[in-house]
Specification:
4 helices, disordered N terminus, 18% helix, alpha+beta, four-stranded antiparallel beta sheet, 28% strand
Length: 228
């Protein structure tokens, strides 16, 4: 199916994301491309707050938003709704706020301090002062990419990934923070750990951290990690 050249008309005012570029993705989905994660999240929140008729799912990523709908006949109306969306200047807390207790004894805490020029204590204080937002999920089920932290915490991935990162590891990389939902390989900088389960197949929904949710991290002593 060819790209719909009219899909960029209308000039939606997407914060920090520029004009959306809408591409068909099969008969019942559209892939909306933006310039960055802030724009994706702004558009996601606008559409989630007032979904166009027929929209069944919204799946944000770092630079795209997949919009699924129930039947092909709705395609043009949904393209129009997407390109005319006007995200508000202030974000709503989709699904409320989650508090995650963290024991800040991560293997890379000292390295993050050295990379940022902060002391380990200042890294912890900076991480806990921010109100983070789940921008999208990826890498593994329940792995949320959180944005909104202090720019001083923008650190690169490790030069060499670990074969095993434990479930509950709290880490930083490339402007994001995240909680590893289960044991897996990983290359992020680990600054702490939590015992709060962010992925639980017995829960509905199984992912604790979903796009648009706000997250605050609080410092906890060992053994206190299940509160929040």
């Amino acid at each position: 199916m060819p790209i719909d050249e009219s899909s960029t008309a209308g000039g939606a005012d997407v914060r920090s994301g520029g004009r959306p570029r809408v591409r068909p993705c099969g008969d019942t989905a559209l892939l909306v491309e933006l310039d960055g994660v802030e724009g994706v999240l702004a558009l996601y929140e606008a559409l989630a707050a007032d979904p166009p008729p027929g929209v069944t799912d919204l799946l944000p990523a770092a630079r795209t938003l997949l919009v699924r709908f129930d039947r092909p006949a709705r395609r043009e109306a949904i393209i129009s709704a997407v390109t005319r969306a006007r995200p508000s200047g202030s974000r709503r807390a989709a699904g409320g706020e989650i508090v995650i207790p963290v024991v800040y004894q991560g293997a890379d805490l000292a390295d993050v301090a050295a990379l940022t020029g902060l002391s380990p204590r200042e890294v912890i204080d900076t991480h806990t002062r921010a109100t983070w937002t789940v921008a999208f999920s990826g890498f593994a089920p329940g792995f949320g990419y959180l944005i909104g932290g202090d720019p001083r915490l923008h650190v690169p991935r490790r030069t060499e990934s670990r074969v095993r990162v434990p479930a509950g590891a709290v880490a930083l990389a490339a402007g994001y923070t995240a909680v590893y939902p289960r044991e897996s390989p990983g290359g992020w900088q680990i600054i702490g750990r939590t015992e709060l389960a962010v992925w639980n197949l017995a829960a509905d929904p199984p992912a604790l951290l979903r796009p648009g949710m706000r997250v605050r991290f609080v410092e906890a002593a060992p053994g206190e990690g299940r509160h929040g």
